[in-house]
Amino acid sequence: xxxxxxxxxxxxxxxxxxxxxxxxxxxxxxxxxxxxxxxxxxxxxxxxxxxxxxxxxxxxxxxxxxxxxxxx
Length: 72
What we know:
Blueprint: H1 9-41, H2 46-70
Helix pairs in contact: 1-2
């Protein structure tokens, strides 16, 4: 049986748009914060590590969304 939407189509669209923006920020913000920390402490490792951590976190979030969406 197909999953029914609990709200209006506009509400569903806003819900997915907010998820997409949040996932994008999850990928981007740790790298930017790491770059700021690199500049502050004179290192060159924290920024790239932040981007990697953000990317892995975003992939985990997407996998969770995919599992929830596929479940009956």
